[in-house]
Amino acid sequence: MFHVVEVDTVAKFGIVEADTQEEATSMDARKAVLAKAAERMPKPGISGNYYVYPVNAAGECSDALLSGKEPTAKFRVRYPLDSAL
After folding, report:
1. Which residues contact 32 (CB under 8 A, 6 or more apart)?
2. Within a domain: 84
3. Which of 4, 18, 68, 78 is positioned for an S-S bond with 23, CB 3.0–4.6 A?
4. 65, 55 in Cβ contact below 8 A?
5. Nearest to 70 by CA among 84, 54, 81, 85
6. Which tens digits make up the pLDDT trace of 2-52?
7. Tell me, what DSSP letter sits at residue 62?
8. Contact 28, 18 (CB under 8 A)
9. Mean pLDDT of 52-78
10. What is the mean pLDDT of residues 44-64?
11. What are phi and psi of 18, to 5 degrees?
12. How far is CA 10 from the centre of its chain?
């Protein structure tokens, strides 16, 4: 299961966290980010490429995690947002 961690309509990004990369990049996860963004920006859309990164149990990404020295707890995806005029 995924959940929306953060949506920043000023910096224009949304972050989803899930147990797997597939859940975090699913169409349902994208729709959830857009629904949350729609609360504060007109006609939001995902623009450009998103990126996936692992996080530990505290929700942080570290060098130890990226090098495989720390276990991955979940995956996050940062979606770039834009708004239609």
Report:
1. 2, 3, 4, 16
2. no
3. 18
4. yes
5. 54
6. 999 999 999 999 999 999 999 999 999 999 999 999 999 999 999 889 999
7. -
8. no
9. 93
10. 93
11. -150, 165
12. 16
User: Tell me, what amino acid is at 18?
Assistant: A
Give the tokens for residue 18: 């899930």
Asked if pLDDT for residue 54 goes beyond 70, the answer is yes
* Domains: count for the chain: 1
Structure tokens at 34: 């857009």
Confirm if 41 and 81 have CB atoms less than 8 A apart. yes
CB 1 within 8 A of CB 9: no
Range of the domain at 18: 2-70
pLDDT at 33: 97
55/25 Cα distance (integer angstroms): 15
| Residue 80 covered by a domain | no
* pLDDT score recorded for residue 84: 78
How many CA atoms lie less than 13 Å away from 46 in the CB half-sphere?
A: 20
Dist CA 49 CA 56 (whole Å): 23
